[in-house]
């Protein structure tokens, strides 16, 4: 069985930062990722709040993280992790390509866009319903679309989508956006963007492809329709906790509970990034988590091995 000092599951900002700090601490470090190296930021068009970088695309920043980790001779494996087992003070990571023993383990599997769950959402996914503006925006050239949500992601991606769409409705259940004021000001100043306040989606409808959204005003109960060719969902995140939900202590919503050192309820297993229960999920907080988790792993290994 292969052995490493530190195994990291997930190659987003948290996992790659943990790899950088783990290697700098002299730990043999393996990062396992089943999807895109760089994580969820790779489907984000613009990042303007990473300190020291005024503007970068998500893929650019993701590449910077991986390049940095690679420069320190971090090992990478493309594989799916099936389970985690305890083996004394160490952990056994079971993947579809074999088992690896780790003296310390960091889980940084992040979060995914939440589904709204309204009628028509599943039926029209890939047929007008999307969760990725950078992936699908270009398909809606000169068409009218709706963005659902009111946080940073919804407002920022709505601005991005105006590069393609002729009009972008932002449907939000409240009477003001929750996004940062800079993002809100930019959106409200864009002539292609029209907010639809106090409204929720009752149904997404069409004949083969999306043709309209049916809305309900939460204050008046009034039902209305907006003819659109696309609906982009940005209504929050759900933790990618399937791997650990039965072995670690979680909080409401399935977010994993940790202490300030990123330690989970299982000794020697640390959790970093958006998977954690915390108040702010941003690239900078994920990176911070990764750094702390790596150094906590170093301390754990020094104490137990």
Automatic annotation (TrEMBL):
BP term (GO), one: removal of superoxide radicals
Signal peptide limits: none
Family as reported in the entry's similarity comment: Belongs to the class-II pyridine nucleotide-disulfide oxidoreductase family.
Record's protein name: Thioredoxin reductase
Co-factor note (free text): Binds 1 FAD per subunit.
A GO-annotated cellular component: cytoplasm
Gene3D superfamilies in UniProt: FAD/NAD(P)-binding domain
The species this protein was found in: Dethiosulfovibrio peptidovorans DSM 11002
